[in-house]
Design brief:
With 143 residues, the protein is an alpha/beta fold. The protein has a single domain, classed as Rossmann fold. The protein has 4 helices and 7 strands. Helix 3 links the parallel strand 5 and strand 6. The longest helix is centred in the last third of the chain and has 17 residues.
């Protein structure tokens, strides 16, 4: 049975703190800007599969780095995805999540993000957080 985690909100930031690649560096910059809007950070590896499904079923906007956790978009009836992907990769590398979003008729924004290491850790900067926040606010006004 699916259940929604107790600290869930419709606004999700996916964190991968224990992953070997594509972690969000300087996540505190994003939290400071999106936290007041109601965004909460979730480490999907710390949630059971039913909790992940419950989290995504109630989602309206999901912000996260390119990775397997975004596959949970399959469980959302209405969320927009703001995908942060390694800037050095081809935009076509993000096509798997674009295709999922498109098939479900969900908005999908891909934002190229500089990498800090060979592990493709995504380096958030003030300028990049400005772009993410503007995208999120536009999505909020569109819904």
């Amino acid at each position: 049975m699916t259940q929604t985690p107790p600290n869930a909100t419709p606004f999700i930031i996916i964190d991968r703190p224990n992953a070997s690649q594509r972690r969000l560096l300087n996540l505190d910059l994003l939290i400071r800007r999106l936290g007041p809007i109601g965004f909460r950070v979730h480490d999907l590896s710390a949630l059971s599969i039913p909790d992940q499904i419950g989290l995504f079923r109630q989602a309206r906007i999901v912000v996260g780095g390119h990775g397997a956790g975004l596959t949970n978009m399959l469980f959302t009836p209405r969320a927009a995805l703001v995908e942060l992907f390694p800037a050095h990769r081809q935009i076509s590398d993000t096509s798997c999540y674009f295709e999922v979003s498109h098939a479900l008729d969900l908005p999908h924004l891909a934002i190229a993000t500089p990498c800090q290491s060979p592990a493709q850790d995504l380096a958030l900067t003030d300028t990049l957080v400005d772009v993410i926040e503007a995208a999120v606010r536009e999505l909020l006004h569109a819904n």
